[in-house]
Design brief:
By secondary structure, the chain is mainly α. It is built from 12 helices and 6 strands. The chain is globular. The protein binds zinc ion.
């Protein structure tokens, strides 16, 4: 399946899904919002699921989590880019859309955690609002953002996260996009996407902001993965350190447009530096 097909499939299923969510929310009324003690206990159970995911990821992905585990909250965040789930760096919290509150937590807990990272890539859309596998995949993805966040904080590179944390209106699209290529690219690296496709000609093309906004997902997820994969293959922690110490830049072509033509050589330089670093250690 081509990426375009996946995206169009994604869009049409997303529409259907949102319609079903909308009707579901109407039926459910506001009961999910009024019960704070119930909500707190559901949130604690989700936090327990996240702790299980962390231990599975440590075993299967060869990474070591640092710092305090994330909290889970049910709340719609104003201006958030993602509809279902968001990881908020400053609060070390995974925010889930409150429509998941009405799902059966017992069934979600009981649903086996998938140990094969590839199966945790959530390119397929939920079959229904309470698709347990989908909810687990969301948590799996957001937990990997938590890994990257706490890694940076313990490496005292917290400043790097500023751009990712800023609200959409306070940062330029290009700065946001280059930072998000790393932010999402690293998570994608662990998810090993099955339907990955990124045309390297995209790096050399000239992009105005309208086209860039249109292709934001393509650049951030697929472009990010294409960019970071060979670098992290050299060593996960060394690769991440290289990426944050060497900011990824766009080339300004004119006042209206940019290109990412320096990224292939950025990647080559990274691979050279990391190979030297590895041979120095031997
Ligand atoms: Zn993400």
């Amino acid at each position: 399946m081509s990426l375009e097909e996946i995206i169009s499939k994604y869009k049409s299923s997303l529409c259907k899904f949102l319609i079903s969510v909308f009707s579901f929310t109407l039926l459910a009324g506001t009961n999910a919002f009024g019960q704070s003690s119930t909500q707190n206990s559901i949130e604690s159970r989700y936090e327990e699921i996240v702790r299980q995911i962390i231990s599975i990821q440590e075993k299967t992905l060869g990474i070591k989590f640092r710092g305090k585990e994330p909290a889970v909250k049910f709340e719609v965040l104003e201006g958030a880019r993602h509809h279902f789930a968001n990881y908020i760096i400053k609060e070390n919290t995974i925010y889930l859309n409150p429509f998941f509150l009405d799902c059966n937590i017992y069934e979600i807990e009981r649903n086996p955690l998938l140990e094969n990272p590839q199966k945790n890539s959530y390119i397929e859309l939920p079959r229904n609002v309470c698709d347990q596998e989908f909810i687990k995949k969301l948590l799996y993805h957001e937990t990997l953002h938590h890994y990257f966040n706490t890694f940076l904080k313990t490496e005292s590179s917290g400043n790097w996260l500023e751009v990712v944390s800023k609200k959409e209106k306070d940062v330029s699209l290009v700065d946001k996009l280059t930072a998000f290529m790393i932010w999402e690219g690293i998570v994608q690296y662990f998810l090993k996407p099955q339907y990955f496709q990124f045309d390297n000609n995209n790096w050399n093309a000239v992009w105005n902001s309208e086209k860039l906004e249109e292709k934001f997902r393509l650049f951030v997820y697929d472009g990010g993965y294409a960019l970071v994969k060979p670098i992290l293959d050299k060593g996960i922690e060394a690769g991440i350190r290289y990426l944050i110490e060497h900011p990824v830049m766009a080339t300004r072509v004119d006042s209206m447009s940019v290109s990412f033509d320096k990224l292939p050589s950025y990647q080559e330089n990274a691979l050279k530096a990391l190979s030297l670093g590895n041979s120095n250690k031997k």
